[in-house]
Amino acid sequence: LPRIFCVNWFRKGADGGFVWPGYGENARVLKWMIERIEGKAGGENHLFGISPRYDDLDWGGLDFSRERYAGIIGADPASWQAELTLHGELFKLLEARLPAPLKNTRKAMEDGLAG
To answer: CB-hemisphere CA count at 13 Å for 61?
Structure first.
């Protein structure tokens, strides 16, 4: 099966601006993805699967602190609980045609948030 990765290039900080610089800097994350597929890169378990640790990305030439990275890699449990509640409404509407893997993924996310 193909490897699937999720990114949020458009996460905003407290100042309302984008946290990730984007454009060519996206190649840093794409490089990590390829290295994960090839078994050459590490990561850590995260609510959404395996995510790169700060030291797993190549930061050469970019001033991007650990603290700033923590702000984009983190998942606020309260926000995701609210998001999953909204998903629940949609899942109910689609229940008859909803593939089991989507239900299982949602359940795993709920369990991860619960502790």
So the answer is: 5
Q: Which two tokens stand for residue 46?
A: 């995260």
For 1-12, what is each residue's pLDDT tens digit?
778 888 888 888
Q: Find tokens 């909204």 and name the residue.
A: 86
Distance separating alpha carbons of residues 70 and 47, to the nearest angstrom: 14
Instruction: Report which of 29, 71, 66 is spatially closest to residue 50, judged by C-alpha positions.
Output: 29
Q: Identify each DSSP E strand in 1-115 by its residue range.
A: 44-46, 49-51
87, 106 Cβ separation under 8 angstroms: yes
**Tokens at 113, concatenated:** 């948030």
* pLDDT value of position 31: 97
